[in-house]
Amino acid sequence: MTAWEPTTNAKYGVVIYNYEARSDRELTLKFGETVQILEQCGGWYRGWSLSKKDVLAIFPSSFIHLKPCHVENPGQLEAVVSQEDPVVREVTSVLREWGVVWKNAYSNGDMKIFGQIKNAMLDLLKWRKLIMGETLPQDKLMDLKRKVMSKINWGNWKLSLDMVLWKPDGKPVEPDRISVHELFSMHLKNQEEIESAGTRSGTVRMKKVLSLASSLPSSRQREPRGHHLVISFTCFIANIGEEVDICFSIYDHGEGKFLNENYIVKLSKQGMVLDLSILNSTFGVFEDLSEADLKKKLYLACFVFRIGTMRQDKKGPTCYRRPYGCGVFSLQTILSQTDSSDPEDFSIPILQVHSGNDNDFYKFHEAAIKAKSADRVVATGQLVHGDLEQLKIDKPTLFPRGTGFAKRLGFADLIMPGEIRNDLFVTVGDGDFDRGSKKSAKNVEVSMKVVNNDGGDVMNCIWVGAGIQPVSEYRSYIMVHNSHPVWNETIRVTVPVHTFYDCHLRFTFRHCSTTGKEEKHLLFAFLKLKTRDETTLLDDRHELYVYRAQNKSILTNPKRYLDLPASSTHAMFSGLTMTSSGTGNDVGLSRNEREKFTVSTLICSTKLTQNTALLSLLKWREKKDSLKDVLNNVSQVKGDEIVRFLQDTFDALFGILNEESREFDHSQKVFDALVYILDLLQKQKYKQFRPVLEAYVQHHFAAPLAYEKLLVCFKHNLENVANPSKEFLSKLLSTMTALEFIFKFIIQSRHLYARALRGQNLIQFKESVQSAFVALNHMIGVQMPHLESVQQIAHENFPTIYTDLLTCFDVTEVALFVQNFLSATKNLRSNSVLIQARLTCMLATVNSELFRFIESRAVLLPSLLAILRDHLIKKEKEEEEICAKLFDVILTRLQTAECETTPDDVTCVVQTMFYLLIGILQRIDSTSALAGQHVVNLIAMLKLMKESHFRDLMASYREKPALKTFLLDVFFVFEKLTKARPYPAQWRAMYMLQNNVLVHAIQAFSVALQSHFLFGSDFETPVWDSFFNLSVAFITQPSLQLETFSPANQAKILDKYGDIRSVMGFEVFLKWQSLGQLQLEFVPHLIGPFVAMTLVPKTDLRKSTMPIFFDMMEIEAKERGDFKQVETELIDQLDENVGAGKGDAEYKDLLCKILVEKSRGHATLAERGVAFSESVGNLLERLLDYRKVESTEENRFKKTMCTVNLLNYYRDQGREEMYTRYVMKLCELHLESGDFAEAGFTILLYANRLKWSNFHLLSVGKYQTETEASRKERLLKQAIAHFDQGKVWEKGIQLCKSLAQQYEEELFDYKQLSDMLQTQARFYGNITQGLRQPPEYFCVGFFGLGFPTFMTNKRFIFRGGELDKLGDFTARIKVQCPSAEFMMTLDQPGNDILTSDGQFVQICRVAPTPEIPKVFAEKNAAEYVFEYYKFNDVNKFLLDRPFHRGTKDKSVEIKTLWYSRTTFTTSHKLPGVMRWAEVTSLEKVEMNPLEVAIDQMTQSTQKLRETVKKYTGNSSLSVNPLSMMVNGMVEAAVMGGIKNYQKVFFIPQYLTENPQHVRNLETLKSLIREQLTLLESAIEIHGKLAPIDLKPLQVNFETNYNELKRDVFKNIFGEVSASPDVRRRQLDRSLTVAHKPTHEGLKKTSSRSTVVGPPRKASIPKQTSGADSPIQQRPLPKPPSLSPSPPVDSDPVPPPRRMTGKRQSIPVSRYEDVTLPKSSSTGNLLDVGGGGGANENEENTSGNVYDSVPSMTSSSSFHDNSMSKSDPDISDYDSPTRLPPQLPPKKFSAPPQSSQPRKIVYSSPLAFKSPPLLPVKMSRRGSSESTPIASSILPPPMSPPRNTETMTMGGASIRMRPRPSRGMTQSPDGGGGNQDSGLERHNTVSGNVFIQQDRQLSPKPPVVPQKKGSSAKP
User: Fold this and answer.
1) Looking at CB atoms within 10 Å, which of 538, 1109, 1378, 1785 has the fewest?
2) For the stretch 712-726, what's the b/e string if a residue is b when 16 or more beta carbons lie within 10 angstroms of its beta carbon?
3) How many CA atoms lie within 13 A of 567 on its CB side?
4) CB 608 within 8 A of CB 422
5) Best CA proximity match to 1497, nearest among 1442, 1539, 1537
6) 541 phi and psi angles, rounded to 5 deg
């Protein structure tokens, strides 16, 4: 077997495939994860994932891609570091971290952040690939890395992740290897870059920090930066066909001028670059853009010239330069680029010059700004920053060979020493030329040459533009026929300095003919480069004379014209004149006064000047006699001139100083001139020339004897400081301003002297310098107002001389100079400018080289700290800011390796500043900008301190009270630091460094607790208390909660610092154990902090600190006999902290385990401790459940349940305060959800615990301090108000009575009594008015382990709202349980569901089992009195599920119909404190058919009893509901049910088979007997209340009832009717007369008039069956044959119709069956054979199509929205007197066309208040006969479809569409094949009706008189 071997090269790799571990020994790997490898064996590696280093396992090697790495500490503890580029490594880590946030943003729907992260990640992926490609040059690579760093920090800031710090070389910063101040400064810098980029607006506090950091003085000056625009020409999109010159230049639109010379690209006729050597690298650089230029509105102007014929469409010479077009491009975007920006591609549209429109070409760029064109120049632009020469080295790819450098028109901001420039920019302006003899203007071309005085041409000195070679002659472009051409073209002339004044510019003008013919005469102009005072040509616009030469030979001899005036200005000063005829003896020259030519010149030279005073100084050797005047005139020279000749000026001044003798001494004048120039260079305008001056001192200064005279002159200027004259102060101020360079010259001169004479006269030199410093210190110490500005400048500039002094003096000597200087200023007044100046001087001193040396630091540090301490004690804000920065710099310098900090240095700092800084942090606002700086200083000081420093610091407090105060202050400040957030959350590195330093400091200071404050009288509780609170605050601070960090950040922190919380927690435990019996001093007030500490999700921390709780229990029980205080406080703190979101299940288990183990092992706390531990476990379980749900409507159920669980817990524990708190929370939850009744019951929980006493209660929630009686009264009133809102008036009445009794008998407050009684009366009125609907109840089961523990596998009964539907309720439950699966059956779930991890919900509707109080039943109270108790105050609920057992008999379903009845019992009655109650018991029984029949009969009888009771003695009620109920009970449908009972139960066979059912049979009989008795009473009441229109219906009721009664008594009871029949009421004779309906709602059935008469005999068509039947229907009972119609003259009084057979369906063919809504009641009064309770899915075989008609108890209401405005309002029929007269019932004529029996089933719900029962007329469409049907009630009107049948009833009608049968041909209009089978029915009353089936008519039907002329058809 192969053994495991340590790996050699395979140490580090990346997972390239996912791998799932198959055993505990293997490691699960995810794609992209990194692993460290220790050993290998075969194809396996052993190691760990770098994200989980605690798991050592094996994994397959084929899943790993090895990468090179560096191994640290080889062996078992080795660590690997990837050799990848650090930036690439960081990008990889960042992409993984961002990926998680990116997915979360998508899940949360935050598409803005999602898009931003996506774009940033794509950029990082692209850049990472470029970096790894290793193809970029070094400069591009560094730029790309900086861009990557910036993007990472931007993204981390946006996502609130950690900021990453980088070094300039692209390596990450190690926080523990740099100073605290450097780390702080790096964070500030990154913050500033992020905010300056506009990616995020910083907080106000951070802006203050940045402002403070930027305002602090620094010894480092910002180096000037140059800006250069680099463009790369790509192509020119145009079709010209000639050579092209493309000229680029930068145009300032605001000032209307160009900033640079042109950059020119020459193209061939084919559009290619003429110079093929730069074919792919056509670059141009516009040099030296200033900072001000970048803020201007600049454009890149592009001028296009073609080189060819004069006109493109004509032949001729091809050498002419003609304008083609111009375009511009805005540079605003490019000029805003940073160093890391990419080049920007752009195109410039070219505005083309049209023929004859080239005269304004010089200003075409203005018009091109807004123009558009198809011709385009395509290029790329980029702005680069820095010195151009250095950029050429750093970024060679930007400056390839052939790059053109376009010079700036003028000097750059910075001129370096040695830089020689001698450029003359000539702008060819405009001219006026005489056309001469030509009819049209000339085509003028200007050419220019540089000619010396001898007539020779200066070759190749003219630069038409950058990018091309210089030429000897410039030729302008040509404008056609223009006598006043304007060119405005700038060229650059470079002439050597030594020949510059001997040259002049000569301009020649010629007419360019299209044929190439030259003119005879030649026009020319000239311009001399030297003025008459021998200075350089002035920068100005020159209007030149134009001369005409007769021949060219004149131009070869310049002497012939140089003496002539070149311009009018020259002529005025020289006195020369020139006429048109000639001059002098030279007749070959002439001038036309109308002709002139204008040019502008600009000289940019470092050797040539235009100032006479400066020129005199530079040529001082020629003017020694007037040297005094020359030196005096130096102050008149402007700074712009001086800086151009800086080196020459200094050479001249020091040359004068070196050559002076005693007879010729102008040293003071030279010193004053030198001071003037040096002072001038210190001004802000010339700050950039500082490097020039430094370079001159180091490399060009050569005056070894100057130092003596400079020192003498310096001391001379410091004398007589009391002189307040303005001239003296000005000179002194300039001297102090130039102090740095004065000493630079002095020291450099001394070095030159010492080098030459080998160090002679050193002592004299030191004495002279010492003497100078004495004079300086004397001036500083003089306190005079006029010297303050001078002293301020002296302090600011004094540190600048340290470096130079150290080259000649010992460090200690220089330190003494500085100490004396700083000590010279004393007793400064507050807010003096000298204070800030001195602090600035001290800051610069610390930053100087002098502070680096140990010897000098020993002198300076005590002095600096003493001065610093004095300023901080004053507490002046401005001083404090600089002092904080100064102290920061001191600590930073001490932390650097170059300083070699000694323990004495740290001791000096700590002893002087530590306690002072603690005091500052105590009083300062932790959110202020300055607080961050002070915190940095404290952390830096603590980082410097070793254990000896802590000991020495505490030992310095010899007295214990002083040490106690010191420790209390220190612990307070440390606690303040841990709680405050002095930095942004993204500064994770700063927080971790601070915490790492603080934990060691806390440990060091805590030593004094045990050594000084533990034993005997030395014990100090406040000190220990402060320590424990500090420790808890430190452990619980957010910046240490690693669980909230990303895995990558967790790994970094753990690798670098470990988990600091565990260290601090162990320290707390040790200190706690050392207290012993003194632990009691901290019980119970430390329980809260310790609970917060143990709630930190760190297992080892919890294990080490949780035993503290048992210690508290033990010590309290030992001293006080019990641990009640610990118990109380622990419960309170757990409730507060866990409720705030802390803690988890592990915490609960671990705490209970530790307490139980400790308790069981204790002699006296075993029982009590275990009980308390279990109680705490129960509390934590409830609190964790409570926290899981949110306070939203979706989780209202869970939130309420958790609240009730906690409420019950605190009630059982007797915690009144906590109990009350959760009662209030529960009430608020109910009110938010609109559960007012439950809110009232909840308030009563609190109110019932109060008494009517005057004991004062403390404020609780919204209740202020008040007496117990007042609180109870307030609560009861609120409960009454909530009961009123919830319509639970019965409960409100009880409370009203209680309060009324209190007001009447105890308080005697009749005003309140009156109000309460009125409220009580209003509640009674609400009850009697029936203003509420009964609620619905639903049973909901929550199954599966996915629910919280209080819901798992439990059922609850929910109280729904008024008219709440099952679908609506189910939808609400789905919202609350979105991930649950809803079960479709009501069967008990199996174990697979109960034990699964999923969520399953089962919902069904249940019926309450009411418990009506006996008092109401005994007193025979009205229905509305006990209506409330039918649906409320219930805790038992029923669920009936019908099923058939055995073979189902479709003719008599009741025979096999069984019920499965489930009774649910809940924990409390509803309504209550919750809208639901848990099911505590469940009982299931099966009801046999007899019991089902008894149940149905019981319900129907009870309903009938209530109805009779309701109508007894109350004639104001509408008779319609009573009519419907009686109709449903006397008709055959219901009696058919009793008939079925007879067939099934009242037969001998049934009793033989079921002898045990004898008692139940008797019960059923008694129910039938009771129902008949009640029905008789109902019919009598109906007869009394029925209006005359319903008398026929009443007759029908009486007839049917008598028949029913006889039949029942005979067949069931076996006896003759025990009571006489109900007497038939005599009908009025008028009822026998047919009345024509007059109500407007009555509609005719056809166009022909309807005649009411006796119906003829109608034959029932035979029913077809089998294949011949168009519709396959179930068989219906055959209707009996109808009796023949009586004669017309028979008795008009219709006899009562009698029942002779079973009830039959009205034969209506092929109507759609629309299922009616089922009744909520189990019983159905309209069910025929009790079959209404059968399963609705079973086929109806009873022969009755109305078995599904709902119960009359349905509360549905009807409103006909389809009724037209002409229809009568339903309210019109409320009074019987307004009903139209109706006809007596008639026989029904069956339609002969139909062969199928018909059935009509309507979907209209029954109305709660139904209209009276009215006869119905049935007629066939097109027929003249209508047949009334008695006691029929129709559904509301509907819009009739095509091919419909219409039923009319009064004013309303309903049209019914036939349903097509199987196999039937569908008609085109949607109807069936049989189209004449419809009936039209009209109802006289609009409203809900129900249907009555046809029945067998009596042998002698009634006769109704007919009108004459009418006929009746069958």
Assistant:
1) 1378
2) ebbbebbeebeeeee
3) 17
4) yes
5) 1537
6) -95, 125
- What distances in angstroms separate CA 1668 from CA 634, 1139, 1672, one per listed residue? 135, 78, 9
HEC string for 222-243 = CCCCCEEEEEEEEEEECCCCCE
**Predicted local confidence at residue 1462, as pLDDT:** 94
CA distance 32 to 12: 13
Alpha helices in 824-876 (DSSP H): 833-847, 854-874
- Radius of gyration over every alpha carbon of the chain, rounded to an integer in angstroms: 56
Identity of the residue numbered 313:
D
* Phi, psi for residue 603 in degrees, rounded to 5: -95, 130
Cβ atoms of 769 and 750 closer than 8 Å: no
CB 669 within 8 A of CB 387: no
- Find residue 677's DSSP bridge partners: none
Share of the chain above pLDDT 70, in %: 78
Single-letter residue type at 1907: K
Judge contact between 878 and 836, C-beta under 8 A: yes
CA distance 1230 to 1242: 9
pLDDT digits (tens, 9 = 90+) for 1512-1568: 878 888 889 889 888 888 874 444 567 788 888 888 888 888 889 989 999 998 998
Whole-angstrom Cα distance, residue 720 to residue 640? Answer: 34
Give the containing element (helix H, strand E) for 1324: helix 1310-1329
Q: What is the 3-state secondary structure (H, E, C) of 1832-1898?
A: ECCCCCCCCCCCCEEEEEECEEEEECECCCCCCCCCCCCCCCCCCCCEEEEECCCCCCCCCCCCCCC
Contacts of 1519 (CB under 8 A, 6+ apart): 1582, 1585, 1586, 1587, 1590, 1812
Q: Nearest to residue 865, comparing CAs of 910, 813, 800?
A: 910
Buried b (16+ CB within 10 A) or exposed e, 181-194: bbbbbbbbebbbeb
Residues shown for the chain? 1914
Q: Which residues pair with 237 in a beta bridge?
A: 376
Selection from 189, 216, 218, 222 nearest residue 848 by Cα: 218
**The pLDDT of residue 587:** 57
Strands 1879-1883, 1845-1850: pairing is parallel
Distance, in Å, from the CA atom of 71 to the CA atom of 533, rounded to the nearest integer, reads 78
Least confident of 727-741, 848-862, 1136-1150, 1609-1623: 1609-1623
Quote the CA–CA distance of 171 and 174 in Å, as a whole number: 9
The pLDDT confidence band at residue 1605, using thresholds 50, 70 and 90, is: confident
Residue 1635: predicted pLDDT = 36
How many C-beta neighbours within 10 Å does residue 1121 have? 9
Q: Hey, what are 953's tokens?
A: 């610091």
Quick one: which of 788, 799, 794 has its CA closest to 860?
799
Q: At a CB cut-off of 8 Å and minimum separation 6, what does 1785 contact?
A: 1592, 1596, 1694, 1697, 1815, 1828, 1829, 1830, 1831, 1902
Burial class (CB in 10 A: 0-12, 13-18, 19+), 20: exposed
- Decide if 817 contacts 756 (C-beta within 8 A): no
Rounded to whole angstroms, how far apart are CA atoms 1241 and 1018?
A: 58
Could you give the C-alpha distances from 463 to 404, 495, 607, in angstroms and in order?
11, 11, 20
Transcribe 1702-1755 into DSSP letters.
Answer: --------SBPP-PPPPPSSSS-TT-SSSGGGS-TTS---SS-TTTTPPPTT--
Q: What residues contact 800, with CB distance under 8 A and at least 6 apart?
A: 739, 740, 844
DSSP conformation letters of 1582-1605: HHHH--GGGHHHHHHHHHHHHHHH
Per DSSP bridges, beta strands 351-352 and 444-452 are unpaired
pTM of the predicted model over 0.90: no
Adjacent-strand bridge partners of 1827: 1818
| Residue for token pair 């074919």 | 279
Cα distance between residue 1887 and residue 1832, in whole Å: 12
